[in-house]
Structure formats: C-alpha cells, structure tokens
C-alpha cells in the first residue's frame, strides 16, 4: 500500500523494537478513528475448515507480533483470517536485554532474541476479554526462562488451563531458540512426557467445559528429516490437531557478511522461506493429511504462500513479511491462497 511505503523509511529510521511498538500504537489509533481501511486492501472471503474451526480466509498473523493480545481489534481489521498471540508464560518476564531485534534490509530479514518477553498469562487473558474480536484466535504458550526443563510441563499445563476458555486453538511453543534448552523439548522422552501431559489435561478440560480446543505444536526449521518424522509420529499418537512449521532459524544461510548477521537469535524473513517450506513438505508427507500443517516462515509474497500450500500447508501465517511489505501483503497472500485452492480442487 502507498501509505505504508511512505511510512516505512520513517519507521526504519528507528530501532526495530521502537518501530514495532510505534506501529502497533498507530494501528490502534487508526482503528479507533475509523481510517484503518486506508492502510489495508479488502480481503476477499476464502473460507475453509481446519482443526474443526471455520476460517474466513487462510492467512493468519503469526505469534510474536502481539505478545500480550493488546491490539486484537486493530490487527483483525487488517483482514487476517485468524490471529495468534503470545508467546505467553505463566509469570511476567522482561525477556533478554535490549537491543534484541535487528533488521537486515538487504536480505529482507530480521534477527530476534526477544526471549518470551510478556506480561504473563493473567494479563493476556484480561486483554482478550476486553477486546471485541470474536474471530479465530490462537494462543501460543511457553515456559518461563527460569523454569527447569524437567518442570517445563508444569508451565505449559498452567497456561493451557488459563487460556482454554478463551482460545480457538492453543499452540505449544517448543521451538524458540531464545529460551535456553527449550528446543530439547522437541526430542524423544521430553516431547513424549510433555505431549502426554497436555493431551490428558486437554481431555479433562474438554469434559469439564463440553468444548474441545484444538492443540497445535510449533517446531523449528533446523531439524533433520528423521527428527521431523519422529515428531510427526508423536503428534499423531497423542491426538494433536496441527503442526506449525516453523519458528525462526539459527542458520545464517543467505545473510553471511551482512551487518548484524552475527547477532545471536533466530533469523526470520526471506532467507527462512525455503528452509521452512522443506519442513512443511516433510511434515505433510509424514502426517499424510491426518492432522493439519500451518506454514509460516519467509512468506514475503504471494509466490511464497503458494509454495507453502503446494508443500502441504492448510493455512499460512505472516510476520516478518509485514515489516517489509506492509498490510497489503495480507490481501495479496489471501488472493493467492484462494486461487491455489481453487486450482487444486479443479485438478
């Protein structure tokens, strides 16, 4: 959109975290003033059912942009088919020390080491209750940085219980590279224990509330094929409803030699696209359509979104692409997804 192209140089003159906060506040003000339509193109309906939920279109907001669910109404007005908030932890935590978010404009990429900075699950729940948004809402949950790995399940179970009445679906984030040892939860016995505990808790909550909330698991892009296959088997064994592929990468392929490329943290944006799509493809093959795959990572254009769909994704999510392309990317991606699905049905 023209307005975003004009605003972007001003935003990029600020440090990345300041620009992030300013952008979200500006969206809130524009929504309150009723002028948000000037920033976002209309999104044509393209409904589909995934995880038993009805999505008005298949393009969602990825977790991380609105960690505390403070901007739901404004973000929904941009045309997303669904929103995902978080990652949220049981207790508030400040995250890692700033600076912790860096742009690599030449590569259309970001590096972040935010570290699950959030205001805690109780504040997130309060913000959701105050919002008017009633669309599909995913809530992404994690563990506090100082919770020992052997007690990680306690944090996830606590968050699950708190957000269960508010979520359309709940995402178990075991793949952020910015919380020490978190990715160990993707492996063997740790994954088995966590998924078993969550599945049992979900069944108790479903019986109590007469409402079954889907569970999704978000995984890393840095896994070997055998590891992806093992995760897929565990997801199926425990009745998990979706896999989200992927989180950010520790690889620096595509950004070597660029300023800020050596900063610690997870890389997102264009250099992640093919790596993420590889995981989507492998997951989709291992799962054989028995549970959904949601594709996220490096979607900077309609073509990237189509690649995720061809690889086997049922839905896609955006984050870094919004930073570089603005809200117009939502309608562009939704139109590409609708066209691709129609073509698949025709074939």
Give the strand order, joined by hyphens, for the main sheet: 3-4-7-8-9-10-12-13
Low-confidence stretches: 342-347
Give the fraction of residues assigned to helices.
Answer: 40-55%
Q: Describe the global form.
A: globular
Radius of gyration: 19 Å
Number of domains: 1
Roughly what fraction of the amino acids lie in strands? Answer: 15-25%
Cα separation of the termini: 33 Å
Comma- or semicolon-separated keywords:
three-stranded antiparallel beta sheet; eight-stranded parallel β-barrel; 347 residues; single chain; 13 strands; TIM Barrel; 11 helices; alpha/beta; globular
In words, what does this structure look like?
The chain has 347 residues and is α/β, with parallel strands linked by helices. The chain has a single domain, classed as Aldolase class I (TIM Barrel). It is built from eleven helices and 13 strands. The protein has helices at 2-12, 16-33, 72-76, 121-130, 152-163, 188-209, 225-237, 273-287, 302-311, 320-325, 328-346; strands at 48-50, 53-55, 59-61, 82-88, 101-104, 109-112, 137-141, 169-173, 215-219, 242-245, 266-269, 292-296, 315-318. Helix 5 packs parallel to helix 6 and helix 9 (302-311) packs parallel to helix 11. It starts with a helix and ends with a helix. Residues 342-347 have low confidence and may be disordered.
Produce a short descriptive summary.
The chain is α/β, with parallel strands linked by helices and 347 residues long. It is built from 11 helices and 13 strands.
């Amino acid at each position: 959109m023209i307005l975003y192209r004009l605003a972007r140089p001003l935003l990029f003159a600020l440090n990345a975290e300041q620009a992030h906060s300013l952008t979200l506040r500006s969206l809130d003000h524009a929504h309150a003033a009723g002028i948000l339509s000037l920033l976002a193109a209309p999104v044509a309906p393209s409904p589909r059912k995934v995880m038993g939920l009805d999505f008005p279109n298949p393009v969602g907001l990825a977790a991380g942009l609105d960690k505390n669910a403070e901007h739901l109404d404004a973000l929904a007005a941009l045309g997303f088919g669904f929103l995902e908030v978080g990652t949220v932890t049981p207790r508030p935590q400040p995250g890692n020390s700033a600076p912790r978010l860096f742009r690599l404009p030449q590569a259309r990429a970001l590096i972040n080491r935010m570290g699950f900075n959030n205001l805690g699950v109780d504040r997130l729940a309060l913000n959701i209750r105050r919002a008017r948004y009633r669309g599909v809402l995913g809530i992404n949950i994690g563990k506090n940085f100082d919770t020992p790995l052997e007690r990680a399940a306690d944090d996830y179970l606590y968050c699950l219980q708190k957000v269960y009445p508010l979520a359309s679906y709940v995402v178990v984030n075991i793949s952020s590279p910015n919380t020490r040892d978190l990715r160990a939860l993707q492996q063997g016995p740790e994954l088995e224990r966590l998924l078993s505990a969550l599945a049992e808790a979900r069944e108790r909550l479903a019986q109590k509330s007469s409402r079954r909330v889907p569970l999704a698991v978000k995984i890393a892009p840095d896994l070997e094929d055998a590891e992806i296959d093992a995760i897929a088997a565990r997801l199926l064994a425990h009745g998990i409803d979706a896999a989200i592929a992927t989180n950010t990468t520790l690889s620096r392929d595509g950004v070597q030699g660029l300023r800020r490329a050596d900063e610690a943290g997870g890389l997102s944006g264009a250099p992640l696209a093919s790596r993420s799509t590889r995981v989507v493809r492998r997951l989709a093959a291992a799962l054989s359509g028995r549970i959904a795959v949601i594709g996220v990572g490096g979607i900077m254009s309609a073509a990237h979104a189509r690649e995720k769909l061809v690889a086997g994704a049922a839905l896609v999510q955006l984050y870094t692409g919004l930073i570089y392309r603005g809200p117009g990317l939502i309608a562009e991606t939704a139109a590409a997804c609708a066209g691709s699905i129609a073509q698949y049905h025709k074939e």
